[in-house]
Every structure is written in C-alpha cells, then in structure tokens.
Amino acid sequence: MPRPKIIVCDVNETLLDLAPLKKSVGKALNGREDLLPLWFSTMLHYSLVETLSDNYHSFGEIGTAALMMVAKTQGIDLEYEEAKAAIVTPLRSLPPHPDVVEGLKALKQNGYRLVSLTNSSAVGVETQFKNAGLIDLFEKRYSIDSLKKFKPHPDTYRMVLNDLDVQPEEVLMVAAHAWDLAGAENVGLQTAFVKRPGKTLYPNVPKPDYVVSDLKELVRVLKNQ
Amino acid sequence: MPRPKIIVCDVNETLLDLAPLKKSVGKALNGREDLLPLWFSTMLHYSLVETLSDNYHSFGEIGTAALMMVAKTQGIDLEYEEAKAAIVTPLRSLPPHPDVVEGLKALKQNGYRLVSLTNSSAVGVETQFKNAGLIDLFEKRYSIDSLKKFKPHPDTYRMVLNDLDVQPEEVLMVAAHAWDLAGAENVGLQTAFVKRPGKTLYPNVPKPDYVVSDLKELVRVLKNQ
C-alpha cells in the first residue's frame, strides 16, 4: 500500500470520548444509560433516512429527535428542550481519548497532513475541537453540512478529495465506525479502524487496511509499513 | 386528498408481528431480549450503509451481521450459524397482527388494489406470506432485492409506481416505520402510519396523512374521508 499523504480523521468516538453523553442521555431517559447505543444507532439510521429522502437537519437536531423517539418507545416522558440539552451541550464539550493528542502530534511529526471529516456541523466541530484542545492539530476541518448529505454518502469523501486535489489512494480514513470505513473504501480511500469501547467491525464488507487499538498504535503501524 | 387506487403495505412489523424474533434473538444474546430494538436499528442502519456505499447483501444477511455486532459489543459469544438461525427461520414464519387479515379483506372489498413492498428478499416475503396466510390477499409483491437498494431509497417506491403505471398521488403507503413513510412522502405518495408496539413517528419530517392504531381503523378512516 502506498504511504498516505493525507490522514482524514472522523471525530465523534474516533477522537472524542462519548462517555459524558452516556450520563446526560441516561439522565434524560430516567437513568437508562444502557439505552445510549440504541439512541446512537437510531440517530445514525435517521441521518441516512434524511439523506435518502432529500431532507436535512443537523446531526444535533437528528440526535435530539432520536432521543425523543427512544424515550417515547420506552414509555418515558421527555420534552424537546430537555432532550436537546441532554445532547447538544455535552456533545460540544467531549474530552479527547487519552491517546489522541500525542497520537495526532506524532502523525504530524511523521509528515502526514491531518484533516477531519465529521457528521457534526461545521460550527459544532469547531467548538468541539476548541474545547478538546485539538483545534491547532488539523490543517482543515470538513463537515457534511456544506453538502447536506451524511457519511457514508460517497459525495462526503469526494468533497475532501476534490478540495485537497488528491487521489483516493493517497488518503487514509481513520474511524471507530465500520460504516464510515465502508463508505471510504467504496470511494477508494485507505482505511484504518480504531477499536474504541463498544465498537466493532461490520462482517459483510472487506476488512479495513489497518485495525488498531488507538492512534499511538496507528503511528507505529504506519512507521513499520 | 384524492381516494387512493393502490395501497402499498410494508411487511415486517406493519403486517407481521416480530414477537417470535424477540425470543430467538434474546436467546442468542444470552437472554437479553431488551436488545431487540438495538439489533433491529443496527440492521436498518447497515442496510442504508450498504445502499450508500454500493454494497448489497440480503436483509437476512444484514440482520445476521447486525446480530453478530450487537453480541460482540456486549461481550457475548455468538457463532455466525447460530446468529443466522436466530433470525432467518423465525423471520420467515412471523404471525400476522390480529387485525391484519380482516383489515386487508375489508380494504379489498372497498375497491382498493393491494400490493406489498418490503426490504425482505422476494423469496423471503413469499415464504412469509404463505406462512402467515396472506399470500392470496395481494395482487403483487415487490422486494427491493431486484434493485439492490433498501427503502427509503426513492427508487424503491418508483419501481412500484412504474410497474403499476400509476401516479404517486394515487398510491397510499402503509407502514409502522416513520423512515419508510418519510421515503414514500418524498416521492409524493400518500402515507399512513400504523402505531405498532414500540413504534413512533420521527419528529423531523411532516406528519403522515393518516395515523391509525391498526388496519381496521385504516378501513374506517378511509371510508369516512
């Protein structure tokens, strides 16, 4: 595999730890912290439902709607403003996983250009990166909100390729989500899966090019390639 | 609203009761019947991930993969063949909800032409309808497997319109899934939501034209229109 020039990082879960959301979402759902994966999966599903039926709301708005739905189907009373507060504020102040700052710095030092690509809004990810101390580590931030289509729509990855004027095989997509890597692989990008807690591969598509425990392992693996 | 000529019924959950799956999926997940909604949501999400990244597996294959993923993230050992057995066999022998046979017969008697449109495979839905005693109630069955794109992709609804040579506004889509109706509405179909247990509307899109408790209520509502 050729050495990638550009590393594109997904943001939520890949770089930032969703743990604080577990608490706030759990609180909104009467203590049912176990429902976090169902909420997240519902949000992801409806982001693609909107993409495929020519609708668009921000990831935060879809997350709020998804939380309302989970509450409703579980017989839990929840007001819209309460659902929104449970998601939007904590989402914007998530801490980075412990390996992230060191890992990103090492990747930069090793000559890779770093950009991010997220389903969060442009304003959202700017706030997220400021709060997490990651703002200066990336050359550029991309959000799907300029396209109004969510990952893994192929146009989202192509937007990055076109803007940077690079070929797919020169780019490595790094994500903790099998669905994100399936979309990147479809467009011809190299792919690296980061095994964050509760995340796993999707058995129906080819394995990513790299599977690592964290960004520090990614640095080592790329060096030894 | 004009009186619809054609009624298009979604199948899983809308006509057929998923309750037997709760048992088999729960058993595969060490008794965790509470994980059924997460499994179903993961399956739906990945059906759209495949659609958006130019992959295709049958709904049963995606359901099996999704069950493997849920097991893995919950730390439960599960073999592929065991996961498959937990889904495919029960999925093909789901009972109809109690209102379905009477409701469909009444719709036919009232002059509506009935067809079905499902994310299940053509072979799958034929077996499902035979086992549920619904096979003779429908003029035609449509599966997304001829397109290899899952609902709510607009092409799935347009396939039905083109094949029957009807206009969107002449058709009423009936489903227990907000995402299915969002896709149908996008293509211009009339929409009816059936409130099956654990199902709820998606707050970010317009309300369906009809919201009913079951098919018998749909019969009454259409008559009084």
From TrEMBL, chains A, B:
A molecular function (GO) term: haloacetate dehalogenase activity
The EC number(s) this enzyme carries: 3.8.1.3
Family matches, as Pfam families: Hydrolase
Domain of life of the source: Bacteria
Phosphoprotein as UniProt keyword: no
Enzyme class: hydrolase
Family annotation (Gene3D superfamilies): HAD superfamily/HAD-like, Putative phosphatase, domain 2
Keywords, ordered alphabetically: Hydrolase
Family: Belongs to the HAD-like hydrolase superfamily. S-2-haloalkanoic acid dehalogenase family.
Name under which the protein is recorded: Haloacetate dehalogenase H-2
Source lineage: Bacteria, Pseudomonadati, Planctomycetota, Planctomycetia, Planctomycetales
